[in-house]
Amino acid sequence: MSSRLPTLAIVGATGAVGSVMLDILSTRENVWGEIRLVASPRSAGKRLTVRGEEVEVQALAPEVFDGVDVAMFDVPDEVSKEWAPIAAERGAVAVDNSGAFRMDPDVPLVVPEVNADQVRNRPRGIISNPNCTTLSMIVAMGALHRAYGLTELFVASYQAASGAGQEGIDVLRDQMEKVASDCTLGTRAGDVRAVAGELGPFPAPLALNVVPWAGSLKEDGYSSEELKVRNESRKILGNPDLRVSATCVRVPVITTHALAVHATFGTEVDAADARKVLSSAPGVIVQDDPAKAEFPTPSDVVGTDPTWVGRVRRSVDDPKSLDLFMCGDNLRKGAALNTAQIAEVVAREFIQG
To answer: Which band of pLDDT confidence, cut at 50, 70 and 90, is reported for residue 181?
Structure first.
């Protein structure tokens, strides 16, 4: 293979994650030659700016993948399920941000800081991007796993409205406006539900509330989001026996997921040593000084790329366990950025020849 800059296609370029992707491409090292923007027929003809140049959006069709080396998909599961194999058949490596292929044994599930070596293990020509909740913690947990050997995870996630798409953002903003204008709110039970209006993708009002549910109902009362945390963590870390229990909660935050994690390892772990491991890990920032009220919160982390970690403590009951809190922007590292990083790993195969 001769050295060259590969051709990239972005499928779903006009969507919420797609727009973040275009911004990310403009700020990262340029490893691409031609960039094609692809979306549904109703978006065809729009012109979007990529790296300072206007590019016309093309309608999704088999021929748009001709000559494409890497195709990034930021579309619903059913669209990826149909079109990612078509892109692969046309010679492109498909990097998919949906849930369509994550647990396919012939499709690697990749976080470059953790298991970049799996990128070349792609018999179907498809690489999958993890769920945003998993991505909000797995870079930090991967670093700790390498150091201490992770055996068990208990996770409580606090997930932003944007995890439910643009509809989730719009519903939360509408609810916040309505409940903020009601001066009598809180004088009786059920006021928020009465005032909030449309629930949208949430099973209960999200404004001034927390909702212990994200995803769809699965076996034994778990939600699909909770099972993703379990199954994807096992696959990414290459540890099928990892014990994982998750409870996913939706909170009234626009963007950035947060997680409280209790992690158990195969060896004793010291909190100060764990902070050193995390501080030296690519893609992780440690902000941990409770005496000065220094710890990550979604409002601090939104718009940034790393996983932020704080409140690192050794368990008082088990010297092999840590408790920690972390935040990650679910639209950047949790979606668009990790997809772009995977694509860049593939791009180097063409650049290096």
So the answer is: confident
Which residue, 257, 225, 217, 270, is CA-closest to 244?
225
Q: Which two tokens stand for residue 197?
A: 């209006």
Is residue 132 part of the annotated active site? The answer reads yes
Q: How far apart are CA 339 and CA 348, in angstroms?
A: 15
pLDDT of residue 272: 98
CB–CB of 3/319 below 8 Å? no
9 in Cβ contact with 70 (< 8 Å): yes
**Can you read off the two tokens belonging to residue 111?**
């976080």
Q: Give the tokens for residue 239.
A: 């540890």
Residue 287: per-residue pLDDT? 98
Verify whether residue 248 is a known catalytic residue. Answer: no
Beta strands in 60-118 (DSSP E): 70-73, 93-96
Distance from C-alpha of 259 to C-alpha of 132, rounded to nearest angstrom: 12
Choosing from 183, 257, 262, 327, which is the catalytic residue?
257
Residue % of the chain over a pLDDT of 70? 97
